[in-house]
């Protein structure tokens, strides 16, 4: 950028959609807390309430933080790529740690109460989402954050990384919806069909999860909202290609 040039701005509408996504995200966290606090007795670790840490951690980690990690490249459009990558990886890593706490909570709670593990569709989808999310994070760090992968290998893997990032976000939200339904059928199966307040609140949480996913997905798939490469990144990219592939930066089309 030339000296004295106006600072770069975000595309029209992007900031508004990101703001809406954050409002929805904070609302779904508050709704989760309200449901667990008002109707399920709250959250405590070494007690019969340990299970309640599971839905709270999964919504916080596998939905809200995962969604925010996906938005990093849209929000921080003009910051250094290395810093943006690090924040992207950090948020995903934090989401994984919080989700792991949630998984430990449900297994320990089941063991204490003598409930079998991993028999429901929710548990299958949820565990698949977590394991694949961990693998996606490890591969992403290996290919993009740490040196070693060649230019062509990064170029091949990048579309896979983007696709599976969105797919795992969808799977995570789907798993949460299955979990909400399962929990309601276990806890209030006799009264759920009578539109009781707990059922309405939990259904509202499900709608908020879908809305958050839709807004994040819309931001991610708007082509004109993708992060543009900075001039210095283009130069570094060509230098990296020269070092790893042995090609001349001047060779081939730009």
TrEMBL record:
Keyword Membrane: yes
Subcellular localization: Cytoplasmic vesicle, Secretory vesicle, Chromaffin granule membrane
Name of protein: Transmembrane ascorbate-dependent reductase CYB561
Species this protein is from: Gymnorhina tibicen (Australian magpie)
An example Gene Ontology CC term for this record: lysosomal membrane
Membrane-crossing residue ranges in chain numbering: 12-36, 56-76, 88-107, 127-149, 161-180, 200-220
Cofactor(s) of this protein: heme b
Pfam family, one: Cytochrom_B561
Membrane topology: Multi-pass membrane protein
Domain Cytochrome b561: 20-221
A GO term, aspect molecular function: metal ion binding
Record's keyword terms, sorted: Cytoplasmic vesicle, Electron transport, Heme, Iron, Membrane, Metal-binding, Translocase, Transmembrane, Transmembrane helix, Transport
PROSITE patterns for the chain: CYTOCHROME_B561
Catalysed reactions, as listed in the record: monodehydro-L-ascorbate radical(out) + L-ascorbate(in) = monodehydro-L-ascorbate radical(in) + L-ascorbate(out)
Role according to the record: Transmembrane reductase that uses ascorbate as an electron donor in the cytoplasm and transfers electrons across membranes to reduce monodehydro-L-ascorbate radical in the lumen of secretory vesicles. It is therefore involved the regeneration and homeostasis within secretory vesicles of ascorbate which in turn provides reducing equivalents needed to support the activity of intravesicular enzymes.
Top-level taxon of the source organism: Eukaryota
Alphabetical list of SMART domains matching this protein: B561
């Amino acid at each position: 950028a030339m000296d004295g040039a106006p600072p770069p701005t975000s595309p029209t509408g992007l900031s508004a959609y990101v703001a809406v996504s954050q409002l929805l995200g904070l609302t779904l966290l508050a709704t989760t807390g309200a449901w667990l606090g008002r109707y399920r007795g709250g959250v405590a670790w070494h007690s019969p309430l340990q299970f309640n840490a599971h839905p709270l951690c999964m919504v916080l980690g596998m939905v809200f933080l995962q969604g925010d990690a996906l938005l990093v490249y849209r929000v921080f459009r003009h910051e250094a790529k290395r810093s943006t990558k690090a924040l992207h990886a950090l948020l995903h890593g934090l989401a994984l740690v919080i989700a792991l706490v949630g998984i430990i909570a449900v297994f320990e709670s089941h063991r204490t109460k003598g409930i079998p593990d991993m028999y429901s569709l929710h548990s299958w989808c949820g565990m698949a989402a977590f394991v694949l999310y961990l693998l996606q994070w490890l591969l992403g760090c290996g290919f993009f954050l740490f040196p070693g992968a060649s230019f062509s290998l990064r170029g091949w893997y990048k579309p896979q990384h983007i696709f599976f990032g969105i797919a795992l976000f969808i799977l995570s939200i789907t798993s949460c919806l299955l979990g909400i339904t399962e929990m309601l059928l276990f806890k209030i199966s006799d009264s759920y069909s009578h539109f009781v307040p707990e059922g309405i609140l939990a259904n509202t949480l499900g709608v908020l999860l879908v809305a958050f996913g839709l807004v994040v997905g819309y931001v991610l798939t708007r082509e004109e909202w993708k992060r543009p490469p900075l001039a210095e990144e283009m130069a570094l990219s060509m230098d990296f290609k020269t070092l790893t592939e042995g090609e001349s930066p001047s060779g081939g089309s730009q």
